[in-house]
From TrEMBL, chain A:
It comes from Neorhizobium lilium. This is Carbohydrate ABC transporter permease. The keyword Transmembrane applies. It is found in: Cell membrane. SUPFAM superfamilies: MetI-like.
UniProtKB/TrEMBL annotation, chain B:
It comes from Neorhizobium lilium. Belongs to the ABC transporter superfamily. It comes from the Bacteria. Residues 4-234 form the ABC transporter domain. The keyword ATP-binding applies. One of its GO terms (biological process) is carbohydrate transport. This is sn-glycerol-3-phosphate ABC transporter ATP-binding protein UgpC. One of its GO terms (cellular component) is ATP-binding cassette (ABC) transporter complex, substrate-binding subunit-containing. PANTHER family: BLL2173 PROTEIN (PTHR43875:SF10), MALTODEXTRIN IMPORT ATP-BINDING PROTEIN MSMX (PTHR43875). GO terms for molecular function: ABC-type transporter activity; ATP binding; ATP hydrolysis activity. Its main location: membrane. It is a peripheral membrane protein.
UniProtKB/TrEMBL annotation, chain C:
Its main location: membrane. Keywords: Membrane, Transmembrane, Transmembrane helix, Transport. It comes from Neorhizobium lilium. It is found in: Cell membrane. GO terms for cellular component: plasma membrane. The chain crosses the membrane at residues 27-48, 90-109, 121-141, 179-197, 218-237, 275-299. GO terms for biological process: transmembrane transport. The keyword Heme does not apply. This is Sugar ABC transporter permease. It is a multi-pass membrane protein.
Length: 278, 351, 311
């Protein structure tokens, strides 16, 4: 009796594994195909029926991306824009999340909800004009600043949720121990909120890195970020598929790696953020 | 160390008044317990003393200093929270030394003070641990250690034992009391558990709905409760209350139960509605007295708790001897009239 | 935003007539920097857009105030109405499909089986991947002659499709990409809901003799309904604003067959540099999103109330 029950359970879990595998297969197939495209010479990419694993790997596709397209510069631009926008967002967003949580002013976070609902383009029109007026176009600053539209709400939103769950008694104990409000924040609230900061950092990083619409308006030849650079490759039809797929992979690889290594934090952050988001 | 004087302290949240003007005087080194049912305002009062909550009126003095508008960090107090509020990212040692570090005391001084407090509480071996690696009782001790290290004017305790299991609670109760006797710092201790208050405090303040019902030494409250509320709150199991009137020199209920009166009694006009109070432990099993049927019998070995139905009145008795009483048995209970109390039904005051 | 000094003990006399000092820490300084930034990059653009929408201004030409003329023009603009219709179908499909697959996936991932954590991690990857990169690879896969999708279809005996190169197939094709990318988000939200579902009702239902479907229908569904609603709200807001995938794959084409409001808005403001008209479109678009969110939130509130009553 008992052994039959155990056998049924293993069968069940194997069945579930199979179902899950089928669900995941479009993801696996897509990325496999992406890798395959990026590693094939043009002949193989144009073959019918399509070839998944070619006889000769076209590593040169990756080389071409960097040689012909100034990709190193764009990579560096992406790092600067995303890095600065994310760090700035942490510097101003973490204290703000703390303040809002402690002021019990969650309602003021509605502004962040509305910001999330606002189409990115409606930020772009006025800020584009302002940047032009300040003659900042041509530098990375317009993109850094406008990426704050993405990163600050993410950080504030997640940190509000996080600070709401950290016990206020700890901060009361600290103030009785003689800490000023700033010391309470820096020595007690902040260290305890470290996991939340990591989550908001990762998510802000990813969504800023992936952003496309701001760059396509604000970037020129020298200030492109990776998503814009890849899009520009696409619009030149003469480029063959191999280097294109390689470029796409280069753009998204950092994010995918981060997703893999920080899966737990990302899931936690998205779930919390999303559930609060309603 | 310091005295604490609370004068006409009030607290309202918007239009809701939760504390209605309270006066308490605490002398230097005294151990005062604030007790009352939940929602009576005892924690709010403590938090106002701590500086975590604004006062709406009145003043608080610690020593000679009026502190009601001074932030918590400048009040020279230490507080032990219900859930200990240990800093999870600091070791025991860092937790205990945090206040001194904020005061920019030098490292050697912090080390020696923390060491001394740890010795008092038996925490020497745990100094490098983090709070999550400690048991409930150890966390409790660290929280106390954090308070001791400060060497503050006043210790505040906010229901510090309510998260512990029953056995540990009794043990920690003893340790807090010992600590107080050793250090002698003025202590204000909030609890809903009257047993804690009775066993630990020099003075008990009974709060109810934001008013003080009575202030006094533990045994005072037990022997001479000011009113029905205090009489019912202090003592366990709770005092029996029986409605009735004095007629023909005896206390009679409406259903005709007659209870013996204390001898020393001021003259009471007959016909006034009264409440007769007698503690279960002041009732003896006997061959005479009140006749009742046992409707609940609970023995713990050392004691026997019996509830009697005597002419429709429910009377709880606590017998110190072992008796062979079963459900439905007829029992004779003899009340010690010198221990009986009479209360005015209208005002609740003791006569 | 009055900040009152808290270090100053006051005597009773001083206190009379003045506001009592605060013991509670002043948290406004923590919020202030973010407030400034949000005002600059979020609130200011809103107001500016509102103002610009009342003007006629093409970049490089003089600006004139024209009142609501841009809005009147919008109402009469057939291309706008078409884009509204495209947006509606695109959004509806991009909510329903991920909701269906996401819920299914959440039910599977809520159970225990080998490699669950790893598979869930893989499943989440599309939503984290850079949309432009994803769009680019899908474009290659959609290629009518060389694309792998038509080859896969041929294996099951279906003839070649034109996908994004066909006026009537382009929106469903884009929705496939959108669904592929955003099903994981729905899965995560519903999974969060399932995690909050208590075990006991299932045990008692088991004792009451409920079968698997009945347990799902009468226990799971009502309990995760609020989370499904959240998923619908978030998905709607995201899908209606979808830009990257559409722009990168079709730029609204072929012709204007996949031109949603957002794409039309982009073209107006940054291809034709008709800033005034683009702003008016942005305002209307924003109002549409707010209205949609409001309706959905109302539905959700109602769902929650009936939940409360049941409990």
């Amino acid at each position: 009796m008992a052994s039959r029950l155990i056998r049924r359970k293993t069968l069940d879990s194997l069945g579930l594994f199979f179902v899950a595998f089928v669900m995941v297969s479009p993801v696996i197939l897509f990325f496999l195909w992406m890798i395959s495209l990026s590693l094939k010479y043009e002949i193989d990419n144009g073959a019918y029926p399509p070839i998944l694993i070619p006889e000769n790997f076209a590593w040169s596709n990756y080389l071409k991306v960097f040689e012909e397209n100034n990709f190193l510069l764009y990579f560096w631009n992406s790092i600067l824009v995303t890095g600065t926008a994310t760090l700035l967002a942490l510097v101003i967003g973490v204290p703000a999340g703390y303040g809002i949580a402690r002021l019990k002013a969650e309602k003021s976070a509605v502004i962040i909800m509305i910001a999330r609902m606002t189409p990115g383009l409606s930020f772009l029109i006025p800020l584009f004009l302002v940047f032009q007026w300040l003659s900042l176009i041509g530098t990375l600053w317009p993109q850094i600043i406008i990426h704050l539209v993405v990163t600050v709400p993410i950080v504030v939103w997640i940190m509000i949720g996080y600070f709401e769950t950290t016990p206020i008694e700890l901060e009361e104990a600290a103030s009785i121990d003689g800490a000023t409000p700033w010391q309470v924040f820096r020595l007690v609230a902040l260290p305890i909120a470290k996991p939340g900061i990591v989550v908001s950092f990762i998510l802000a990083l990813i969504f800023s890195w992936n952003n496309f619409v701001f760059g396509i308006v604000l970037a020129n030849r020298e200030t492109r970020t990776l998503p814009v650079a890849v899009y520009n490759m696409l619009s030149f039809e003469q480029v063959s598929w191999g280097p294109l797929a390689a470029a796409a992979l280069i753009v998204t690889l950092p994010v995918l790696l981060l997703t893999m290594f920080a899966q737990r934090q990302i899931v936690a952050g998205l779930t919390a953020g999303a559930v609060k988001g309603g | 160390m310091a005295t604490v004087n609370i004068q006409n302290i009030q607290k309202n949240y918007g239009a809701v008044k939760v504390i209605h003007g309270i006066d308490i005087d605490i002398s230097d080194g005294e151990f005062v317990a604030l007790v009352g049912p939940s929602g009576c305002g005892k924690s709010t009062l403590l938090r106002m003393i701590a500086g975590l909550e604004e006062v709406s009126g009145g003043e608080i003095r610690i020593g000679p200093r009026e502190v009601s508008h001074i932030p918590a960090r400048d009040r020279d107090i230490a507080m032990v929270f219900q859930n200990y509020a240990l800093y999870p990212h600091m070791t025991v040692e860092e937790n205990m030394g945090f206040a001194l570090k904020l005061k920019k005391a030098d490292v050697a001084e912090i080390k020696s003070k923390v060491g001394r407090a740890a010795a008092i509480l038996g925490l020497e071996k745990l100094l490098d641990r983090y709070p999550k690696q400690l048991s409930g009782g150890q966390r409790q001790r660290v929280a106390m250690g954090r308070a001791i290290v400060r060497d503050p004017a006043v210790f505040l305790f906010d229901e510090p034992l309510s998260n512990l299991d029953a056995k540990l609670r009794v043990q920690m109760r003893g340790e807090i009391k010992t600590m107080h006797q050793r250090i002698g710092t003025t202590t204000i201790y909030v609890t809903h558990d009257q047993v804690e208050a009775m066993t630990m405090a020099d003075k008990i303040v009974v709060l109810h709905d934001g008013h003080i019902e009575q202030i006094g030494a533990p045994l005072d409250l037990y022997d001479r409760p000011a009113n029905i509320f205090v009489a019912g709150f202090i003592g366990s199991p709770a005092m029996n209350f029986i409605d009735g009137r004095i007629e023909e020199g005896a206390f009679r209920t409406s259903k005709g139960l007659i209870l013996p009166l204390p001898q020393t009694l001021p003259s009471i006009p007959g016909g006034r509605d009264l409440v007769y109070g007698i503690r279960p432990e002041h009732i003896r099993a006997s061959t005479q007295g009140i006749e009742g049927r046992a409707i609940l019998v609970e023995g713990t070995g050392s004691e026997l708790f019996v509830r009697l139905d005597a002419k429709g009145e429910d009377i709880a008795c606590l017998f110190r001897e072992r008796l062979d009483i079963g459900f439905g048995d007829t029992v004779f209970a003899e009340i010690d009239p010198t221990k009986a109390h009479l209360f005015d039904k209208q005002t609740g005051r003791r006569i | 935003m009055a900040s009152v000094s808290i270090d100053n003990p006051m005597t009773d006399a001083e206190q009379i007539g003045s506001k009592p000092p605060r013991l509670v820490p002043n948290y406004w300084p923590f919020v202030l920097p973010a407030l400034l930034v949000v005002s600059a990059v979020i609130v200011f653009p809103w107001l500016f857009t509102l103002w610009m929408s009342l003007n006629s201004w093409t970049l490089g030409q003089p600006r004139t105030f024209i009142g609501f003329a841009n809005y009147v023009r919008l109402v009469q603009d057939m291309r706008f109405w078409e884009s509204l219709w495209h947006t509606t179908t695109y959004t509806a499909l991009s909510v329903v499909l991920p909701l269906f697959f996401g819920t299914l996936a959440a039910l599977v991932f809520d159970a225990k089986f080998p490699f669950r954590g790893f598979l869930r991690g893989v499943f989440v990857m599309p939503m984290m991947a850079t949309p432009v990169a994803v769009a680019l690879v899908w474009t290659m896969m959609f290629h009518p002659q060389l694309g792998v999708l038509n080859y896969l279809l041929s294996l099951v005996g279906i003839g070649p499709q034109e996908w994004i190169y066909n006026q009537s197939a382009v929106i469903p094709s884009l929705v496939i990409v959108e669904t592929w990318q955003w099903t994981p988000l729905v899965m995560l939200i519903v999974l969060g809901g399932l995690a909050a579902v208590p075990r006991e009702p299932y045990e008692s239902a088991e004792i009451d003799g409920a079968n698997a479907w009945q347990k799902f229908r009468y226990l799971t569904m009502p309990m995760i309904a609020p989370f499904l609603m959240i998923a619908v709200i978030i998905r709607s807001i995201d899908a209606i604003k979808s830009f990257d995938i559409i722009y990168a794959m079709t730029q609204g084409g072929p012709g204007t067959a996949s031109e949603t409001i957002n794409i039309y808005l982009y073209n107006t403001a940054f291809a034709y540099y008709d800033i005034g008209y683009g702003s008016a479109m942005a305002v209307v678009f924003f109002l549409i999103i707010i209205a949609l969110s409001f309706v959905l939130l109302m539905v959700r509130q109602r769902a929650n109330w009936s939940d409360m009553e049941d409990r």
